[in-house]
Amino acid sequence: MLTATYTLVALSVEQASVRLSLLSFQKYVRTTLMQQNRMTLSQLEYACESLNTLYQACHWRKTEMYLIPALRDATERADHLLDELSRLNQAALTSIRLLQDKLGALADVRDEQVSEVCDSIDTFCAALLKRLEKEESELFVLARNAIAGETWFSIANQLMMHDKHLHEMKRSGLPPAEAAQVAARRRALPGDAVDDAQITIPGLQVLPLAGRDEVLTRPVPKPARPASRDDAIMK
Questions:
Q1: pLDDT at 126
Q2: Which of 8, 27, 129, 163 is the most buried if burial means most Cβ atoms within 10 Å?
Q3: How many angstroms separate the CA atoms of 114 and 163, rounded?
Q4: Can the keyword Coiled coil be found in this entry's annotation (predicted)?
Q5: Angle at which helices 79-105 and 112-134 pack, to 10 degrees?
Q6: What pLDDT is stored for residue 108 in this prediction?
Q7: CA R_g for the chain
Q8: Fold of 2-226
Q9: Of 147, 120, 135, residue with least CA distance to 29
Q10: Could you please report the per-residue DSSP string of the chain?
Q11: How far apart are CA 7 and CA 36, in angstroms?
Q12: Is the dihedral of CA 56, 60, 63, 67 positive or negative?
């Protein structure tokens, strides 16, 4: 089971990176936006863009691409947990929808609307953080017990190939977030892909923020992905 241990440790490292980005943005919202009586359109645009990028970073994790499909094929015991993870994902998407609606309707956000926007952002972060927590504490344990040894070798090989492609993309000069999505696209299996629209927010201006994690750079358009993935992406 050394291969399973190696694979789960590698996935945990990726989980920690995404978790740090979510906590960083959640802290920014609580210490900056929540203290304001008014939010400018640029700040709202930045919040929408950041949530979009954070969602994409979570969506294109190796756990999502390789471990969950393998677990789904290995056992039906994971179905209930996977449904719960999907519901947490939907809660995060609902928060993005609410902010996008406000972005199209408001020139600026005032008073009680600031609190509403911040609550939506907090709900988004909390939902994805809860998903990461349940994956670490429940999904990984279930996967270790349910996935056969030869499948772990296959997953480990997929992770190594993914990292190889990611390194190539970074050497070409792509920002880390964009490189991760290109690497994910290269690992997608032809023939299993379906058309899947990315969350898009046209014409956003991303404002600089000191100390932001690199994952909050603008993502590239998202490619098609395997049909077994259970997320419903907003159009």
A1: 96
A2: 8
A3: 40
A4: yes
A5: 160
A6: 57
A7: 18
A8: Four Helix Bundle (Hemerythrin (Met), subunit A) (1.20.120)
A9: 120
A10: -HHHHHHHHHHHHHHHHHHHHHHHHHHHHHHTGGG-SEEEHHHHHHHHHHHHHHHHHHHT-HIIIIIHHHHHHH-STTHHHHHHHHHHHHHHHHHHHHHHHHHHH-SEEETHHHHHHHHHHHHHHHHHHHHHHHIIIIIHHHHHHHS-HHHHHHHHHHHHHHHHHHHHHHHTT--HHHHHHHHHHHHSPTTSEE--PPP--TT--PPP-TT--GGGSPPPPPPPEETT-------
A11: 44
A12: positive
d(CA 178, CA 200): 15
Measured CA to CA in angstroms, residue 109 lies from 38, 49, 105, 126, 159 at distances of: 6, 16, 10, 22, 43
Cβ count near 197 (within 10 Å): 10
What does the block give as tokens for 47? 């919040």
Whole-structure pTM value:
0.73
Token representation of residue 135? 């994956």
Rounded to whole angstroms, the Cα distance separating 86 from 233 reads 11
Of 203, 47, 52, 44, residue with least CA distance to 109: 44
